[in-house]
């Protein structure tokens, strides 16, 4: 097996983290390591390891999830709490106030996040009215309105993503798919919706059977599993509706493309360097790092019909509102010739 360079770095950071934790654990417990009469310096060194070094190593290990101040502060608080259990009480006594101060600071951040949630609820009617008056679909417009009017904090982004799921699962059934001239469906010539319906049936059958068997073994575990399965069904239903109601659209200055709740992207025409069509597009390895695909799932593997390359990485929104940059997008539509004619005309302009 070939280990890629990024993975090898993750292993290195993991080993360094393990070394930091083990060394701090042993320094207070091995008799062969003499403890100085004034142990405050050693304790301060351990606190720095748990408060700063360990969180930085964890951030480096999970850098694919992105860096945020909130994540770093959370790891710092967890590090201080962990230090309380690693450092013996006799040595930690002069610093006993630190964990409570850290938890208190985290509590302040939690109150601030609750305030953002309240602010979001306050702005929901205004956001809904603006979306209704505009021409952009809810899938693209709602997160942007929330970001502009409330905040781009991760907790708000997550709540906005969950709100989209419940909207498409329960409040979108009266809507009809767009039939405008420059709208192109991605799923009608595939088995995507049939596959998702089969998935719903499988989850329901598994829930009815396994839940009752597990109920006699562990009530709590059976309830947790039931909640997760209900959530999964809601998500799949919302995903079906999202695919149906949000075809790819070619607008004056950009392409808006999505495939369910799991991925969406806006591609400005001025960011396009070239477009591969036909066999050249089909030969593209869509699993290559930096390529996002908008190809509806089918019972057999489908090839892209066009691959759009960017002059610089473009941001896409993934599951639960997470952001990631890509240097190309592979697309497969139901009406290739009409799509190609429309795109080439726009690129020419």
List the helices and strands and how they pair.
Layout: H1 5-27, H2 40-61, H3 69-86, H4 89-92, H5 97-133, H6 138-149, H7 154-170, E1 183-184, H8 192-217, H9 219-245, E2 248-250, E3 254-258, E4 264-268, E5 272-277, H10 278-282, E6 291-294, E7 306-317, E8 323-331, H11 336-348
Parallel strand pairs: 6-8
Antiparallel strand pairs: 1-2, 2-3, 3-4, 4-7, 5-7, 7-8
Helix pairs in contact: 1-2, 2-3, 3-5, 5-6, 6-7, 7-9, 8-9
Report on this model:
The model is unreliable at 1-6 (pLDDT under 50). The protein folds into three domains: 5-95, no CATH class; 110-170; 177-349, no CATH class. β7 and β8 form a beta hairpin. It starts with a helix and ends with a helix. The relative contact order is 0.08. The protein contains eleven helices and eight strands. Strands 1, 2, 3, 4, 5, 6, 7 and 8 form an eight-stranded mixed beta sheet that branches. The chain is an alpha+beta fold.
List keywords for this structure.
349 residues; alpha+beta; eight-stranded mixed beta sheet; 11 helices; 58% helix; disordered N terminus
Tell me the number of helical segments per DSSP (H or I, 4 or more residues long): 11
Indicate how many domains the architecture comprises.
Answer: 3
Q: H/E series, N to C?
A: HHHHHHHEHHEEEEHEEEH
Helix content: 55-70%
Q: What distance lies between the first and last C-alpha atoms, to the nearest angstrom? A: 48 Å
* Oligomeric state as shown: single chain
How much is the radius of gyration in Å?
A: 26 Å
Shape: elongated
Unreliably modeled segments: 1-6
SS content category: alpha+beta
Tally of strands = 8
Report the portion of residues in β strands.
Answer: 5-15%
Main sheet makeup = 8 strands, mixed
> For the residues shown, what is the average pLDDT?
84
